[in-house]
Specification:
alpha/beta; 38% helix; methyltransferase; S-adenosyl-L-methionine-dependent methyltransferase
Length: 277
């Protein structure tokens, strides 16, 4: 009966997969309630209250943005690029669940990552703090990698002044910012618009508002260290526009990384290295 209800909503193949995941879930929610919520359109990740992200299991609850596979893909590639030989100061803008800095903490050698994540949503900051504790990266002063989420808006002209524990310069800046344009937002499925926070999705009329803000931060003297890496996720068709924003505002050249579906997904730049005298 449960499987038939799911099949009517999702199709037989997807229903069979999700039904198995529900039966194996450690959630205290009874199976019949899980099925009813899924049939009503709630995303499976919120029902199971978790999402795999690399080797990590990220705790989830609405309305915090659900981590996507394309974000996992470029975060793993970024970890391979960094190869730190010293402790890196990492800033993640619009951190959500904390998935990006937490995966970097997991993949990079112990003691080489000191990360903080910024989000305007208190729901996101509280959830990211829980994930930091669950993943074992919430203990500053230890030899482990650490991550701390902080509630703040990086759109504030005064950011990061007077915000404790946000201390430039940074070695790595990451972001999966809101990048959905107004026209695209109107076409999103109800599974997205009815459950995920619109503040984590809507990036202004053309979807580019947050990239202008990030580029302005990057352009500030002393915000990033020489040789710092900047990696930002972009929406479909936005890659070249974001490259232009970073070039014009912060005078940075960048490269594009493709996601597993061959879409231009990540703009990656590096600040000039310190010159040798």
């Amino acid at each position: 009966m449960f499987l038939a209800r799911l099949s009517a909503r999702l199709g037989k193949r997807q229903a069979a997969l999700e039904y198995q995941w529900m039966k194996r879930a450690s959630s205290p929610v009874p199976l019949d309630q899980m099925v009813a919520r899924r049939v009503a359109g709630e995303p499976l990740q919120y029902i199971l209250e978790e999402q795999p992200f690399g080797p990590l299991s990220i705790k989830l609850r609405p309305p915090v943005l659900i981590p996507r596979p394309e974000t996992e893909h470029w975060t793993i590639r970024l970890a391979e690029l960094l190869r730190p030989t010293r402790t890196l100061s990492v800033l993640d803008l619009g951190t959500g669940t904390g998935c990006i800095p937490l995966l970097l903490c997991h993949l990079l050698p112990a003691g080489t990552v000191r990360a903080c994540g910024i989000d305007v949503s208190l729901d996101a900051v509280n959830l990211a703090a829980e994930n930091a504790a669950l993943c074992g990266f919430s203990f500053p002063g230890t030899s482990r990698n650490t991550f701390r989420p902080i509630q703040a808006s990086f759109l504030d002209p005064l950011f990061p002044h007077k915000i404790l524990d946000v201390n430039p310069p940074f070695d790595v800046l990451t972001s999966n910012p809101p990048y959905i344009s107004w026209s695209e937002y109107l076409e999103l499925s109800p599974e997205v618009t009815q459950y995920e926070d619109p503040k984590a999705l809507f990036g202004g009329p053309d979807g580019l508002d947050f990239y202008h803000a990030i580029a302005s931060l990057v352009a500030r003297k002393g915000f990033l260290n020489p040789g710092a890496v900047v990696a930002v996720e972009v929406g479909d068709g936005q890659a070249e526009d974001v490259q232009d924003i970073f070039h014009c505002t912060a005078h940075l050249n960048s490269e594009l990384w493709l996601d597993p579906w061959n879409k231009k997904r990540t703009v990656v730049a590096r600040t000039p290295a310190r010159s040798r005298s």
